[in-house]
Amino acid sequence: VQVVESGGGLVQPGGSLRLSCVASGFTFSSFTMRWYRQAPGKGREFVARISSTGGDTFYAGSVKGRFTISRDNRKNTVYLQMNSLKPEDTAVYHCNALLWGHDYWGQGTQVTVSS
């Protein structure tokens, strides 16, 4: 099982980024996928999740209305569209797959929101 994130970078406040996570080694279309983030000096924080079909999504209150999670099961990829970014969104963003009680994490992609 492998999940690989990409798409991070430096963006000004109010800007947008789209993160991608490509998964392999399991039947991607059968599992809920999640995004988490970890800011410097803080614990890992849940950001969003999406059901296996993409029909159900859930967001942390801090990002609701600004971030959108989506997936393309043909490409084994989950996305996180981030709009109206704030400095407090600065963190390493991680993709997560929970398979049969075991968590699989990618290496993360750094998002820095700064002027």
Short description:
This protein is mainly beta and 115 residues long. It contains no helices and eleven strands.
What do these coordinates show?
- This protein is mostly beta strands and 115 residues long.
- The protein contains no helices and eleven strands.
- The protein has strands at 2-6, 9-11, 17-24, 33-38, 44-50, 57-59, 67-72, 77-82, 91-99, 102-105, 109-113.
- The strands form two sheets. Strands 2, 4, 5, 6, 9, 10 and 11 form a seven-stranded mixed beta sheet that branches.
Outline type: globular
Major beta sheet summary: 7 strands, mixed
Q: What portion of residues belong to β-strands?
A: over 45%
User: H/E order of the elements?
Assistant: EEEEEEEEEEE
Rg from alpha-carbon coordinates: 13 Å
Considering DSSP H and I runs of 4 or more, what fraction of the residues is helical?
under 10%
Q: Roughly how many Å apart are the termini?
A: 37 Å
As residue ranges, the low-confidence spans are none
